[in-house]
Design brief:
By secondary structure, the protein is mostly helical. About 75% of the residues lie in helices and about 0% in strands.
Length: about 270
């Protein structure tokens, strides 16, 4: 039991840390743009909000509550619309913000100590991930790959890989599609009948995995924010302003893409 708990802790934290590294998602962009302004508290609060939602999604993906997907799927287009509008609003806020024309290090300290400047970080992290259904599918896919690999090399995951495999099979049966990065031939559905048992121990392991994976992502986002704040003084103020505005345009692009996706889904329905 102790062995599987330690394994799940290590695997979950490592996976969360690595998967959070790409600076392409809306959370990373939001944290990057605000870190370049010196707003560490805002970044930490945003990362915390995002990590809370991520932990819940991981628990759902691993423990086998994917049967709720049949009702949840009806809300996906509307969640995408809300998410796209929120990201567009955040993008406007980032684009319209200006750095003060004074010593950039002093400006950062002033912003970071201001309660008004750091409001909304937790809310932003929560809303962005809650209105991002693709995050759930990404977590399900990545957990399947990570836990299956860990089990294949002899690590004791306490049977979590079988639970995720069952969930992937259930989701593929519901949607009729194969997840990107997962070959359907590796989802051995006939062998799942009666093999996967949901007990208090499996729930404990699922919670540990969910918290450790979310913690890994939080730690990376915190390190990212600290590094950007530390080295932002090396960048000229004008360039820094253009970088921040460039990131706002990336958020506009993501917002438009989500809106377009939601409209197509509603048309198909």
């Amino acid at each position: 039991m102790i062995e599987s708990i330690i394994t799940v802790l290590f695997v979950g934290f490592t996976a969360g840390f690595i998967f959070a590294m790409p600076i392409a998602g809306p959370i990373s962009i939001l944290i990057t743009s605000n870190a370049l302004k010196g707003k560490l508290r805002f970044c930490v609060r945003t990362a915390l909000g995002a990590s809370i939602v991520e932990a819940v999604y991981v628990l759902v993906a691993v423990y086998g509550m994917t049967l709720f997907f049949s009702s949840y799927s009806n809300w996906i287009p509307y969640l995408l619309i809300v998410g796209s509008l929120f990201l567009f609003f955040v993008g406007i806020k980032i684009f319209s913000s200006k750095l003060e024309l004074q010593n950039i290090e002093e400006t950062g300290k002033k912003i970071n100590s201001s309660i008004e400047e750091n409001k909304g970080g937790l809310r932003a992290g929560l809303i962005i991930n809650l209105t991002n259904p693709s995050l759930f599918f990404g977590i399900l896919t990545s957990s399947f790959i990570v836990l299956s690999f860990a089990s294949s090399v002899g690590l004791n995951t306490g049977g979590l890989e079988m639970m995720v495999q069952e969930n992937v099979a259930s989701m593929q049966e519901l949607t009729g599609e194969t997840f990107d990065g997962i070959d359907s031939t590796f989802v051995d559905t006939p062998n799942l009948n009666g093999d996967v048992q949901h007990s208090s121990y499996s729930l404990l392991l699922s919670i540990i995995y969910a918290v450790s994976l979310a913690s890994g992502g939080f730690v990376w986002l915190y390190i990212l924010a600290k590094l950007l704040i530390k080295y932002r003084t090396k960048i000229k103020l004008a360039y820094l302003q253009w970088i921040i505005r460039g990131l706002s345009f990336v958020l506009f692009g993501i917002s438009i893409y989500l809106l377009w996706t939601s409209v197509n889904m509603l048309i198909v329905q």
